[in-house]
Amino acid sequence: MANWNLSFDFAAVMLIAIMLVFFFDERMVPMRSHRVFLWILIVSMLITTLEILATFMARHVDIIGYNELNAVLSLYTALLHLGPLTFSYYLLCLAHVDAFRDKVLRPLFIVCFAAPLLFNIINLKFHWVFTFDTAYHSSYGAFILYFMDAIVIGVAFLAMYREKRAFSFLRLRPLLFTLLFVIASCFVQALAYIPMLNLMSAMVTLTLFHYQQNAGHVTDMLTGQFNRRFMGEFLNSKFSDHSSFGVIMVAMDNFKYINKSCGVDNGDELLRQVGLYLGGFRTPSQLFRFGLDQFCLVVDGRYMARLPIVAEQVRERFRHSWAMLENARITMSASICVLECPRDAQSYDELVDALDYSMGIAKKVKRGSITYASELDFTKVRQEKAIEKSAKLAMDKRELLVYYQPIYSVQAQGYNSAEALVRLHDEELGWISPEIFIPLAEKNGLIVEMGEVILDKVCAFIHSCNLSDTVIKYIEVNVSPVQLMQANFASRVKSILEKYDVRPQQINIEITETATIGPSPVVYDNIYRLTEYGITLSLDDFGSGNANVEYLNRLPFTIVKLDKQIIWDSFKDRRAKISLEHTVAMLNELELSIVAEGVEDEQSKTLLSEIGCHFLQGWYFSKAVPEDEFLRAISMQEVK
Length: 640
Ligand code: C2E
Ligand code: CA
Ligand code: CA
What we know:
Elements: H1 7-25, H2 32-59, H3 61-64, H4 66-94, H5 105-126, E1 130-132, E2 136-138, H6 140-162, H7 169-191, H8 197-211, H9 215-218, H10 228-240, E3 245-252, H11 255-262, H12 264-278, E4 285-291, E5 294-300, H13 307-317, E6 322-323, E7 329-330, E8 334-341, H14 348-365, E9 370-372, H15 379-396, E10 401-409, E11 414-426, E12 430-432, H16 434-444, H17 446-464, E13 474-479, H18 481-484, H19 489-499, E14 507-511, H20 521-533, E15 536-542, H21 549-554, E16 559-562, H22 564-572, H23 574-589, E17 593-596, H24 602-611, E18 615-616, H25 627-636
Helix pairs in contact: 1-2, 1-8, 2-4, 2-8, 4-5, 4-6, 5-6, 6-7, 7-8, 11-12, 15-16, 16-17, 17-19, 19-20, 22-23
Bound molecules: ligand C2E and calcium ion (CA) (2 copies).
């Protein structure tokens, strides 16, 4: 030991010292892991300095004395084993587990904390852990301690794996990398005692400092407040600890308008000012920038009673003006929502949905004032989330069903085509109507994948039942405007058709214009490529207010599907009947094929045939049915 080269240790001391300076220079991050990281730095610093001290003492042991050296070495060895323990504790904190509070982990951590201290005190007399004559020798006690180190690190690793959802992918990789370093270091330490270990540990700490503890990662650059990603981490840990807390969400009204009319610089200044104001409350709270013009103030559960007071203060502040650049001032209102957790949300995802829902309502009906979540009914949001989850699950488990509703041809006096309609069944929720889950899937983007699965199933069905040998010439498939907005939609359709040897003429795509997504260049391009390929198009829900004549003239539809409602109205109201007759006449003149939907009785069948509809679809003929039932129906031609 006396002849060790200490260069690596000196380098480690400098590295840790720099990290300590950076640590205190940056803002404090209010997370347990951040505080524990400081402990890692302190323990590493102590281990390294004690190693240097012990080496100096060993060189001059004759003057200093063996007892003094033994005492320093005992302290050093004890700390050496507290290093892995602190590190494991830190990893568990990242996984939102408090090892000293957890019922299972607590005894293990207490034993692993006490053992190095106890062993090294006893070592002063019995030399269980190490001996020092002219050199440092590990004894069996040291191996027990190394074994314990391996156990705590292994446990931390397992816990991290179990809680892997708590880590984002990018941050997990450097963590795993550093973990390998630590395991390797333990072996190096145990087998061939090399004083490079401290520098290695310092480098591991540096990696962690950069990837995990970097305050820049959790700060919003513009306002200097904590960012949304950190809010997720902060609140996930609060939910894991079962802590209660309140959230005051503040959304500036008309911020986009201010940005446009007063300029981006003024908009930025305004955000900074609002951030500064909200961050300055004396009630213990943490501020986060949640969205462009939204802030969330998270208030500790002990001060729940102060939530309405703070919210009222914020509202009052927004009655007064805010300073902008060049002495200008502006007044704007803010919509404020107040939530209490766990009452209003039991997880971070639930909280985000609840915030979204509450703010949606606040902006609509209580703009500029305070909305309390306790006054809102979250049943609808929860139900929608349950349906979304069920749709995702059905996709993953490949349990989405496609039913077929035959379409009757007036001229052929029998079925000639069919519409594919998606069906979703959930064990708890029962059958869920596509009218409910399709709009949700459109909102969260799932419709793109879902649409492909549906088309895939339809093509597989056409292929397996040899559709060209039946009376059914083509199958109409509903396509959402969101799907048409995907640049590769046409080529995806083509490849699915080719996969099952389906001719383009066997597929007709139904499109409904929606107010939100009008035809864009991408939509036009997809439609052009699909029709060029040979697929025909239907304009769905014509007359419902969504699809109109203008749309009809712009795109190459060959079929128009009259909405159920205008058919039903025409039987109740004379004026509606006249306008239906004229619509059908006009569509005939435009040489378009007409499908009437919602045909529920004989009388409708006769009348709609007489006024010039070419195809009829409705419960009078058949509801949408599973594949085998559909095949039976078309083979028997049970047409009335
Ligand atoms: P839609 O495209 O207008 O489909 C026709 C709807 O009317 C179907 O409802 C069908 O079951 C129902 N229907 C047919 N004949 C009658 C009748 O005589 N009386 C009554 N009362 N209803 C009749 P469904 O299956 O519940 O679908 C609702 C909507 O969900 C569809 O309206 C369509 O917009 C959407 N949808 C269904 N399947 C898909 C799909 O695979 N993809 C997409 N993107 N949307 C789909
Ligand atoms: Ca349709
Ligand atoms: Ca329709």
